[in-house]
Design goal:
Layout: H1 7-10, H2 21-33, E1 37-46, E2 52-67, E3 72-79, H3 89-104, E4 109-115, H4 119-127, E5 131-142, E6 145-155, H5 156-169, H6 177-186
Parallel strand pairs: 3-4
Antiparallel strand pairs: 1-2, 2-3, 4-6, 5-6
Helix pairs in contact: 4-6
């Protein structure tokens, strides 16, 4: 509960605190009834010899609004541990989520939305191959102001080469210089 009520965590996401235990239970019940797919993002915990001794929950990611026969869905992620920001965990989780969407579930397209100032979220989507397809002006109320919402999407055929490269190199995809410059110009969380 502390993570989802931490302003540093929720600053760039649609979720607005305070989130109570009852709210969390209601969210879980609603998610499970609608058939959405939610996955924990777990970080390996290792002993001094580097042996994995357990896992620590650092957030979650999921596929929402599963639409058939259209073959598309929405994605969302939340890293709740600020010490894990900017380390590639969200990017890796998104790549694995896209594997689930495209290869396991057979979706043809995955959509996502971010608040325009949230460069970390926007950036990991671009790095994973998402393309910006729209902007809703003054769409979200955030910290006393209305901010734009950026709509993005990725098709399976655009994700496949990124996945193949990730499998071959074991390196996470990175932003191009052009994408990085765009995000630095438009965002404040980066």
């Amino acid at each position: 509960m502390s993570g989802v009520n931490n302003p540093e965590v929720t600053r760039g996401v649609v979720l607005q605190p305070p989130v109570t235990l009852e709210t969390e239970f209601a969210w879980y019940e609603n998610i499970s009834k609608r058939g959405n797919l939610i996955f924990a993002i777990l970080l390996h915990q290792k002993d001094s010899a580097g042996i994995v001794t357990g896992y620590r929950y650092i957030g979650h990611t999921g596929l929402h609004d599963l639409t058939w026969p259209g073959g598309y869905c929405e994605s969302g992620s939340l890293i709740i541990d600020p010490t894990c920001f900017g380390k590639g965990y969200g990017t890796e989780a998104k790549l694995l989520l896209l594997y689930e969407a495209f290869r396991v579930r057979g979706f043809r397209k995955v959509c996502s939305r971010v608040k325009a100032f949230n460069g970390n979220s926007w950036g990991h989507l671009l790095a994973c191959g998402f393309k910006q397809v729209g902007r809703h002006k003054s769409h979200h109320f955030d910290n006393g102001n209305f901010v734009d919402s950026i709509s993005l999407e990725i098709f399976r055929e655009d994700w496949e080469p990124i996945w193949a490269n990730y499998q071959k190199t074991k390196s996470l995809p990175r932003l191009t210089d052009e994408q990085h410059a765009q995000l630095e110009k438009e965002t404040s969380i980066f």
